[in-house]
Design a protein that fits this description.
Helices cover 71% and strands 8% of the residues. By secondary structure, the protein is mainly α. A hairpin with a 7-residue loop joins strand 2 (82-86) and strand 3 (94-98). The chain has a three-stranded antiparallel β-sheet. The protein has helices at residues 2-27, 38-50, 55-62, 66-78, 100-122, 126-148, and strands at residues 53-54, 82-86, 94-98.
Length: 150
């Protein structure tokens, strides 16, 4: 019985992995005409939602090293999406802040993804939407657990 339980867990984990990859791929579209790689859009999103943010904190949030994040921030800066500013608490440090253009890119991208998901949800049968609404809470708890690490 334990083997079946482990096999069922592995199957569920495989299906969840596949579903998240496919959802991300289905929703992937350049935001507001910006031709940004996924990792750059992700970093911009962190800056928008958590910013202004120190470079090291941003790198940790994105799970990359400081050199990679420095390159990413440089790309975002050249695109006019973020700017560096002196940290008010430590003048040796900088914080990264989304510019108005960066803010627009994040908001428009999020709004478009939400619109597309809502449209797909409207086409689903009501009982399926109800099950999905319940499952979202479980997914949020799973994300919290995954963020804690193994």
């Amino acid at each position: 019985m334990k083997y079946l339980d482990d096999a069922m867990k592995r199957d569920l984990a495989t299906r969840l992995n596949s579903a998240t990859v496919h959802i991300g791929r289905a929703l992937r579209r350049p935001d507001a005409g910006e031709d940004l790689a996924a990792e750059h859009r992700s970093a911009l999103g962190v800056v928008y939602f958590a910013g202004p943010i120190r470079m090291g904190t941003l790198a940790a949030a994105e799970r990359v090293g400081a050199p990679a994040m420095t390159r990413t921030v440089g790309i975002l800066e050249r695109a006019g999406l973020v700017r560096r500013e002196t940290d008010a608490e430590d003048s040796r440090a900088v914080r990264i802040r989304a510019t108005p253009k960066g803010t627009r890119v994040v908001r428009e991208g999020r709004d478009e993804r939400v619109r597309r998901i809502a449209s797909a949800l409207r086409r689903m049968p009501r009982p399926a939407r109800a099950r999905l609404a319940t499952a979202v809470g479980d997914l949020e708890a799973l994300i919290t657990e995954l963020e804690r690490g193994d």
